[in-house]
Amino acid sequence: MYKISIITLLISTLLISGCNSFKKNKPSSVNKEEMASKVIDEFKHAWNGYKKYAWGHDALNPLSGGFHDWYKESLLMTPVDAFSTMCTMGLEEEKKEAKEIIFSKLSFDKDMYVQHFEISIRLLGGLLSAYQMDGDERFLKLAEDLATRMLPVWSSPTGLPYRYVNLKTGAVRDSISNPAELGTYVLEYATLSSITKKPIFKEKAEKALLYLSEKRSSIDLIGSSININTGEWVDKMSHIRGGIDSYLEYLIKYYLFTGDKKYKVLWDKHKQALDKYAAQTVESGLWYSVVDMNTGERKATVYGALDAFYPGTLCLGGDLEQAKKLQESNFKLWTLHGVEPEAIDYTTMQIPEGNSFYILRPENIESAFYLYRFTKDEKYLKMGVEYYESLKKYCRTDIAYAHIKDVATKEKEDVMESFFLAETLSYLYLIFAPEEKFSFETHVFNTEAHPLKKLN
């Protein structure tokens, strides 16, 4: 009887093991090669629209066939921002086109104020990534010139950067800022210092990030806005939303980038505090709320398209279970109206007034990419297919891709910003692409999806 039980147990174990092995090894129902090719086709469609109607300008207007520039003169946002995606996709013809206009037209010797944050993540990060991926020294020359012109932003009494700087005069302005615009520079500036052997860039960015982290409350939360001259918080609401998001992201990424454990310690402190005070599980799933940085008291139950970056960051920090749960909520956000709105109240699943738009944001797709690479679960491939089909169905135009003014009506808006090519289509492609297209062992993405080589 005992022997029979042992034999039965062994057979059962082998059968279960065999079934599990079959499940793990069975062919995917998603044709990854075909999907990757389809995403490349859509990138080419959007790039060709930009070339035809907005060449030499920052961005395309994809309904009217017009263009728009961020400032009084173009800084070639789209060609610079899109270049790393071209490298990843292996688009040699498009790379050649982008290089020709960048090297013949791009100059930062312009008497105009620019936003330090956006210029750093899009242009400085884009140029540094382009240099590392392509090898052309002219990218590095442009990057160093840009960063040097922006150095005056670091002149505040606290060392936190001003929001705007004049590229010609060095004049700075706007002293009320947010953690994202204060602490999202270490990857770019440390990369530049490493290449040029000029430590000033890295030193400025690290000082600001560490100063900001020291301003966290006794329960390890930070606020939404701060006066960089006094170091006093102006808005004490804490969350993972826009304005704080990439500050959190860069703590864990900079640890991975450098191997310096103090940044992992800081990430862990913030992560644990957010889990304790901001995370909330309701009938619709796991979400993150807005809370008071000093008390942890919940102030709002709003979650949106920018918050959707967090599962990917949780993957990098090692909490896959929390990442999986939150990505389920991300996907609900996306499928609620066929494409995600800017934000919802997750207790009612209704869209707050003024948040019904979708501007081709990448974060939901970004998190699915991380989760697929970390888990190999096919559900994230299927999410990728859903994202692709939704974008093509609702956002594609004859010219390129357009923002959605209202996710309920699907009315389009005449805008396509550069991050659609730099981030949204890059992450979508990488969900399906061969793993060698991006290595977590050697690279980290900046917050604009530009791959940068690790320093460690």
Describe this structure as you would to a colleague.
Helix 3 runs parallel beside helix 16, helix 5 (116-134) packs antiparallel against helix 6 (137-150) and helix 10 packs antiparallel against helix 11. The protein has helices at 2-25, 32-54, 77-89, 92-105, 116-134, 137-150, 179-182, 186-196, 200-214, 245-258, 261-277, 310-317, 320-335, 363-375, 378-394, 419-432, and strands at 59-61, 66-68, 113-115, 164-166, 172-173, 176-177, 225-227, 233-235, 237-238, 279-282, 285-288, 290-292, 298-300, 302-304, 343-345, 403-406, 411-413, 443-445, 451-453. It contains 16 helices and 19 strands. It has a single domain (28-447), classed as Glycosyltransferase (Alpha/alpha barrel). With 456 residues, it is α+β, with helices and mostly antiparallel strands. Helices cover 52% and strands 12% of the residues. Strand 18 and strand 19 (451-453) form a beta hairpin. The strands form 8 sheets. It has a 3-stranded antiparallel β-sheet. Strands 6-7-8 form a 3-stranded antiparallel β-sheet.
